[in-house]
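Complex 143.
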Amino acid sequence: MIAYSTDVSVLDATRLTGFFVGWPAAPTAERHLAALRGSHRVVLALDGDRVVGFVNLISDGVLTGFVPWLEVLPEYQKRGIGAELVRRILAEAGHLYSVDLVCDPDVKPFYDRLGLFELVGMGVRNRAVLTGGPGAGESKGLV
Ligand SMILES: CC(C)(COP(=O)(O)OP(=O)(O)OC[C@H]1O[C@@H](n2cnc3c(N)ncnc32)[C@H](O)[C@@H]1OP(=O)(O)O)[C@@H](O)C(=O)NCCC(=O)NCCS
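Predicted structure with coenzyme A bound:
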């Protein structure tokens, strides 16, 4: 049975393993935890003590919010957990005017079904920041 929590205060990095699947440079669990702690709102999907999915919202707290991360561990996907995380983070953002996110084209049908509509996104990426390794801050460019 999957439980959902918005409390990251008791979370520690050892419970954030297995995420950022397929990323060439994944953030460490400690950086992942820091990102969650720095967020406006977070929803965690929990199987017992194990974190099996997460979504976060960053925001000015008044009008606008952005959902930078959503992930469900591969062995827990296609059970409705991702959709439930999105529904819950949108409920957490009910006080805001706008909530935006950027996704790859293949994930668009997932968000379509949750009632989101298409926007045009623009951005830069600094991959070295993910790991905090040498060169952080130098290269801005493609994903
Ligand atoms: C996208 C993601 C969060 C979905 O999580 P999930 O728990 O598998 O999603 P759900 O089980 O709630 O899926 C709900 C529906 O969307 C569909 N769906 C899920 N991912 C999809 C995708 N990439 N493309 C199209 N449909 C998708 C599911 O098949 C399901 O449909 P169904 O109810 O008819 O079976 C998960 O695949 C994931 O973590 N992917 C890697 C990270 C990622 O892409 N995150 C999004 C960044 S914007």
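The pocket of coenzyme A is lined by residues 70-72, 77-83, 101, 103, 106-107, 109-110 (CB under 6 Å).
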